[in-house]
Amino acid sequence: MSSPLNTPLSNQFVCPTNSQIGASLRPDQDAKCTYLCGNSLGLMSERSKTLVQEELDAWGSCGVVGHFKHPKNRPWVEYTDKLTPLMAEVVGAKEKEVAVMSTLTSNLHLMMDSFYKPTPGRYKILCEGKAFPSDQYAFKSQALAHGLDPTSAILELHPREGEHILREEDILKVLEEQGASIALVIFSGVQYYTGQLFPMEPVTRMAKEKGCICGWDLAHAVGNVPLRLHDWNVDFAVWCTYKYLNSGPGGIAGLFMHERWNNIERPKFAGWWGHELATRFEMPPVFSPITGAQGFQQSNPSTLALASLLGSLEALQEAGMMNPVRERSIQLTGAFEELLKQSKYFVPTSEVLKRHTQSHSTNPGFTIITPENPSSRGAQLSLLFLPLGSGVMQKVFDKLVLYGVIGDERQPDVIRLAPHSLYNTLEDCQNAAKYLDEAMGHGLL
Ligand SMILES: *Cc1c(COP(=O)(O)O)cnc(C)c1O
C-alpha cells in the first residue's frame, strides 16, 4: 500500500463501485471496482461533469444568445479555441495543424479523400492486417470509390508465422520493395488488439522517402503515449478522445494535417464551420476556408461534447500532460506485467507455440502478446488465453466481471487490460492479477 504507484496522478476521476457494476463476488461492495478499460472508454472526470453542467445551465439561461455571449465567458462559437492548444500539445503539433471535430471514422474518410489519390502506378494502401474493423471498412470503401479492387489495392501486413507483433524491419522492407506502388501508408499508432506501439518515426520517414503519403490512426495512442506529429513529418492523423483522453462515450474526435499541406490540400467537402470565423456569420456565398486543419470542419460542434473533453484535458493538464503520464504508465504497466507473470497460469510466449502443437496439452493458461519492451507498447497488456479457441477466455472474462475487474474481451481468445496512468493504481493491478487467478482456478478446473 505504501508504493508511490498507489497514488493516482489525478484525483479528478470517478470510478464505478463494485455494486454498481454487479461485481457480486467482491466482498467490498462500496469500494471502487478494478477498472482497467481506459483503452476502450476512459472514466469520467469531475471537471467534465462540472463543465457539461455549466453548458446545460448556460443553454437554459441564455438560449441562442449563448453562442456569442456566455455567462462563463465561453461563447459557443469559439469554444474549440479552448481545446485546440491542449489537443495540439497532446499530439505534438502546432495549433493550426489540429482540429477538434466530428468523429474518428468520419475524419479518416475526410483525410483519405484528400490524401489517397491513387494513380495507375501508385495506388496501394499499406496497412496492418487485422486493423480495427472500422478502418478496414474505410480503406476498402475508399479503394472502391476510386474504382479499384480492394484485394489488389490494399496491402495488409501480417506478423510472421507464430508471432503476434509486426516487426519494424518487416514494415521497412515492404516499403523498400514496394514503396513505389504505395500511395498511402496508414497504420495505427498503438495496435488495438496487441497493444503494440508502432515505430511511428522511422516508418513515417521511410514512407516519405519512398514518396508515399503517411497517415496514422491514433485512437489507442493519443493520451497513452507522447506524440510528435509535426516533428515526425506525419502527413495526417486522426483519433478519437473517449479512450485514453476520457472525453466520454462518443466524444468529439481530432484530426491533424501537417502545415506543409496548407496551401495544397484544401477541404473538398466544405461546410460553414470550416469557413473563416471573421466572415462566417455574414454567410457569404463563396467558401473561404480557415488555413490548416480547421478548414476541414463542417458543422458547428456539440458544445456538450466539447465541454466534456475540455474537462478531461484540463485534468490531464493539471497532472502535467503527457510526460508524467507516460513515465508513470511505464512503471504501472511494467509492475502489472510482473504480477501477471507470477501467476501459475502464465505461459511464456516461447512455450506457446510448443503447447499449441502438442495436442495433449489442454491445461488452461494465458500468455501476454503485447511487446515486452516498454518502448514498443503503451499502457495496455493483451492476454491471450489457451488452449486457443477453447472458450477459456470468455469464461474467465465473465468471471472477472463478477470479481469487479473491468477489462474488455476480443474474440476468440484475448482480454485487454490497461492501467490508466491518470487514475489507476498498483492496487488495481494487484487485484486484477489476483482475481484473474481466482477466475482461472474456480471458473475452469
Ligand atoms: C476505437 C477505434 C475506432 C472507433 O471509431 P469511431 O469512429 O470513433 O467509432 C476506429 N479505429 C480504431 C483503430 C479504434 O481503435
TrEMBL record:
Species: Agaricus bisporus var. burnettii
Residue ranges of coiled coil: none
Protein name, entry field: Kynureninase
The protein's role, per its UniProt record: Catalyzes the cleavage of L-kynurenine (L-Kyn) and L-3-hydroxykynurenine (L-3OHKyn) into anthranilic acid (AA) and 3-hydroxyanthranilic acid (3-OHAA), respectively.
Top-level taxon of the source organism: Eukaryota
Entry keyword annotation includes Signal: no
GO CC annotations on file: cytoplasm
GO molecular function: kynureninase activity; pyridoxal phosphate binding
HAMAP family in alphabetical order: Kynureninase
Keyword field contains Transferase: no
Binding site for pyridoxal 5'-phosphate: 104-105, 132-135, 188, 217, 220, 242, 272, 300
Annotated pathway: Amino-acid degradation; L-kynurenine degradation; L-alanine and anthranilate from L-kynurenine: step 1/1; Cofactor biosynthesis; NAD(+) biosynthesis; quinolinate from L-kynurenine: step 2/3
UniProt keyword terms in alphabetical order: Cytoplasm, Hydrolase, Pyridine nucleotide biosynthesis, Pyridoxal phosphate
